[in-house]
Amino acid sequence: MSRLGDAITTARRALGITQEELAAAAGVTQGALSRYEQGTREPDGDVVARLAHALGVTEPFLKGAGSVRGAMAVDAHMRKRATAKATTWRQLEARLNMYRMHVRHLMEEVSLRAQQRVPTFDPIETDPADAARMVRMQWRMPIGPVQAITTWMESAGCIVLAEDFGTSRVDGLSQWVDDYPVVLINQAVPVDRLRLTLGHELGHLCLHSSEVTLTMEEDATRFAAEFLMPEEVIRPQLRNLTLGRLHDLKREWGTSMQALIERAYDLNVISAAKRTNLYKSLSNKGWRTREPLSDELAPEVPVLAQSIGEAMADKGLTPEEIASIAGFSNPSKNTIFAAPKRRLRVI
Questions:
Q1: What residue spans of the chain are helical by DSSP H?
Q2: Which residues make Cβ contacts (< 8 Å) with residue 45, sequence separation at least 6?
Q3: Residues 6 or more apart from 13 whose CB is under 8 A from it?
């Protein structure tokens, strides 16, 4: 498949449309579109323009989307359940890849100066828990619970995007584009689960920027556990666990009661029998599927992408210019760097 073919296919999948639907919108035959996507035939300039318009992107975006380190259509790091439908997570993966390319397109024109950076480690040489501790030290984070993990990640230049996935079986995805990490999270899930997902994806970004291992998911989970619930601080608090104690710890640490149980078990603070009994207690109250207190936790709200749009608007750029720089065909398609509309003040 050619780079242009990659870009067309990924953009189409991100929109959730078929080849037939895109072909009709662009005024080409389905057979021709199939050959464009496969890279066996190159569309002429007029066809590229029509395809770009139908896909909601600019011609330069569509032509240049493949010329990037990490490629256009890469596998995303993804926190999902085994029962997640392939069609769903593949569409989400395509959307993440489109967002990656829009970020890359914009960063060619805009310089992002982050206070910190997302460090990367060799997953073979670095234990996930040690990596989490090093990130906390490099970012000079306070000892104890992580307040607003999204803010910490964005201060390190991580573009965090939130939207409703339309399913609860996929929590989040992440991948690098050039030197910029991009994370897409499911805003419909409870805050405690969302926070663990953010820690999980941060673990992927730190540990799996280039290396693929058989224990990637386990490594990211271990990273998230240490990052959000550092052993040195939380271990004494996990002794003598009860449902009441789990309530208090959830409020303090912002993680689910189930994550706290797993943390206690992994640290050998509780036995397998105690772990089983706690899960039975949660099940008896119907809390395995929906825990209490999640609505009381402070929400995780990404702001960096919108702030970039606001900064561009403050410099005099119009919504049309901002959209074009990011590779969107018009402002209505710009879903990530759009500055909020400013209200006119009547005097």
A1: 3-15, 19-26, 30-38, 45-55, 59-64, 86-107, 128-138, 149-155, 191-207, 216-228, 231-234, 243-253, 257-266, 272-284, 304-314, 319-326
A2: none
A3: 90, 91, 94
Q: From residue 27, how far is each of 1, 21, 53, 225 by CA, in Å? A: 22, 10, 11, 51
Closest among 215, 223, 293 to 258, alpha carbons compared: 293
What is the number of alpha carbons within 13 Å of residue 102 lying toward its C-beta?
31
By CB atoms closer than 10 A (0-12, 13-18, 19+), residue 164 is: exposed
* CATH code matching the domain that covers 128-296, chosen among 1.10.10.2910, 1.20.120.430, 1.10.510.10, 3.40.50.300: 1.10.10.2910
pLDDT in tens, 51-108: 999 999 999 999 887 555 445 556 778 888 888 899 999 999 999 999 999 999 898 8
214 or 49: which leads in pLDDT: 49
DSSP assigned state of 81: -
Using CA atoms, how far apart are residues 181 and 196, in angstroms rounded to an integer?
A: 18
Domain-by-domain residue ranges, the chain?
A: 1-67, 128-296, 304-333
Selection from 238, 243, 251 nearest residue 293 by Cα: 251
346 in Cβ contact with 340 (< 8 Å):
no
Name the superfamily (CATH) of residues 1-67: lambda repressor-like DNA-binding domains (1.10.260.40)
pLDDT in tens, 107-148: 888 888 888 999 999 999 999 999 999 999 999 999 999 999
